């Protein structure tokens, strides 16, 4: 698995003067097209899932496919929640497998933006997950005409940005310097001087939303001034739409597969063009050599119960699955019974954490403390526990490297 920490990815880009594309995906055609481009360009890539798109796909259903794509990749991948609207969405994103989170409270007053962002940062950092915040307001809606959403742009101020980063602890900052989400008529005017000042003041990776419609020269100037993550969606959606419209011309009868023919390939070609333009192509190998792969942890308990009926045991386990799986950083809770009646230990818990940081934050979380102290420890005095990493997660970096070497 070439899933890596997005912090490692974006600092590598920051220190080497290139930007990684964060491509919002809304279907498997997007996922496959983006990953094929990353493999061809040997580029790091961010698979981005925007909360504003959750009407178009089932987040919970698509995430296993996104993770599977990252797992089999030979290039470094991060999975990012884009425009997370609340603490609950950030927790859901992390628990479903995102290893980077954007909290978007940019439409709120500065003090509310800071308070909400700080809360998300505290939770996400306790799970080992980096956070992108946004200051200033980038108007528009991804995939739509910018004029349909004329909401006023609010430029990021340098002084506020310094304050915001210091008080919230965000790892990366999305800035508003003139870009707009969605389809534009003509090129937007960008305030490059403002960006330069923000970059000098902060010295952290910067993010641009509304990548569609910028010129090659604008991209180059953004990257020269600290932009390391470029969010890009509308252009991909438009290219996919154009291909589908073309397909209908040659189709006598409409069928889904006929309509989707070649859609993955046109998305892929545009993603590859971006990777070449933004300088992330051919960076996979050096990045993988410098960073650790993202390594989840499993928390296993084997135990015996005293004085519990079968029904009481089932009830306790069901309650544990319910409360523990809602704790930030917990990917899954599985309970089990030994197959053999005479096993030395009769029961198991397997709790999958997204990152080693969750070992501590889980132990101290009030929901865990309450469950463990009231319902579990009093009846399970006889128990053994271990936090471990699977061989797969430790070996992934090696595999990713081997894949790259084989291809070269
Ligand atoms: P565009 O749709 O304008 O490329 O913007 C994408 C974006 O910023 C997603 O967060």
List the helices and strands and how they pair.
Layout: H1 6-16, E1 20-24, H2 28-41, E2 45-50, H3 59-72, E3 77-84, H4 87-96, E4 100-103, H5 110-125, E5 131-135, E6 140-145, H6 158-168, E7 172-175, E8 181-183, H7 192-202, E9 206-208, H8 216-224, E10 227-232, H9 234-249, H10 256-260, H11 263-277, H12 284-290, E11 297-303, H13 310-324, E12 330-337, E13 347-353, H14 358-364, H15 366-376, E14 383-388, H16 391-407
Bound molecules: 1,3-dihydroxyacetonephosphate.
Structure at a glance:
The protein is of the alpha/beta class and 408 residues long.
Task: Write a concise keyword list for the protein shown above.
single chain, 408 residues, alpha/beta, four-stranded antiparallel sheet, binds 1,3-dihydroxyacetonephosphate
């Amino acid at each position: 698995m070439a899933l890596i920490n997005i912090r490692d990815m974006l600092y590598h880009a920051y220190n080497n003067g290139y930007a990684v594309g964060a491509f919002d995906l809304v279907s498997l055609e997007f996922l496959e097209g983006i990953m094929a481009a990353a493999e061809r360009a040997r580029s790091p890539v961010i698979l981005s899932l925007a909360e504003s798109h959750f009407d178009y796909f089932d987040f919970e259903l698509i995430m296993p496919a996104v993770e599977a794509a990252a797992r089999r990749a030979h290039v470094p991948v991060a999975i990012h929640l884009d425009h997370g609207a609340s603490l609950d969405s950030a927790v859901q994103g992390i628990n479903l497998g995102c290893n980077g989170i954007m909290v978007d409270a940019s439409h709120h007053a500065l003090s509310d933006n800071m308070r909400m962002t700080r809360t998300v940062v505290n939770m996400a950092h306790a799970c080992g997950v980096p956070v992108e915040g946004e200051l200033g307001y980038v108007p528009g809606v991804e995939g739509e005409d910018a004029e349909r959403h004329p909401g006023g742009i609010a430029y990021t101020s340098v002084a506020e940005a310094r304050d915001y980063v210091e008080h919230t602890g965000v790892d990366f900052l999305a800035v508003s310097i003139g870009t707009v989400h969605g389809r534009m008529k003509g090129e937007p005017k960008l305030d490059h001087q403002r960006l330069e000042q923000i970059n000098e003041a902060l010295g952290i990776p910067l993010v641009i939303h509304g990548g569609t419609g910028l010129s090659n020269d604008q991209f180059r100037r953004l990257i020269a001034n600290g932009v390391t993550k470029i969010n890009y969606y509308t252009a991909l959606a438009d290219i996919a739409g154009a291909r589908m419209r073309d397909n209908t011309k040659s189709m006598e009868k409409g069928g889904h597969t006929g309509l989707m023919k070649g859609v993955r390939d046109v998305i892929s070609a545009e993603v590859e063009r971006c990777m070449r333009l933004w300088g992330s192509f051919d960076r996979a190998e050096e990045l993988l050599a410098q960073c650790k792969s993202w390594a989840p942890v499993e928390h296993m308990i084997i135990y015996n119960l005293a004085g519990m009926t079968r029904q009481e045991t089932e009830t306790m386990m069901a309650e544990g699955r319910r409360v523990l799986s809602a704790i930030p950083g917990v990917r899954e809770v599985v309970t089990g019974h030994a197959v053999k009646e005479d096993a030395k230990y009769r029961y198991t818990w397997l709790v999958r954490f997204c990152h080693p940081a969750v070992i501590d934050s889980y132990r101290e979380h009030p929901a865990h403390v309450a469950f463990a102290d009231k319902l579990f420890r009093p009846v399970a005095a006889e128990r053994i526990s271990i936090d471990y990493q699977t061989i797969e997660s430790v070996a992934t970096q090696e595999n990713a490297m081997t894949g790259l070497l084989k291809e070269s």
